[in-house]
Specification:
Elements lengths: L4 E6 L4 E7 L1 E6 L2 E6 L5 E4 L3 E7 L2 E7 L2 E6 L2 E6 L2 E4 L2
Parallel strand pairs: 1-9
Antiparallel strand pairs: 1-2, 3-4, 3-6, 5-8, 6-7, 7-10, 8-9
Length: about 90
């Protein structure tokens, strides 16, 4: 079984997602990026766009507007200025 990434998506209103996933793709201010388990640590600002959460063959998409992404040895945390689930 492939290693999983712990991912948390938090907006000022509430935590929208927290759990183990296969991959997360996000809209960084310097360009889009993807994170898998074991990724090198980094922090970046986010621009408006879609965060795609891949888990066990399913993809869940959230629309974000601003915020930060922080990749650590413990996983990925996105602190979004605004975030909501989307059907895109």
């Amino acid at each position: 079984m492939a290693e999983k990434l712990h991912f948390s998506l938090v907006s000022p209103e509430r935590e929208l997602f927290s759990g183990l996933v296969d991959q997360v793709d996000a809209p960084g201010s310097e360009g889009g990026f993807g994170v898998l388990a074991g990724h090198a640590p980094f922090m970046t600002a986010l621009k408006e766009g879609l965060v795609s959460v891949h888990s066990d063959g399913a993809v869940t998409v959230y629309e974000v507007r601003g915020g930060f992404a922080d990749v650590t040895p413990d996983g990925l945390t996105i602190l979004a200025e605004h975030a909501e689930a989307t059907t895109k």
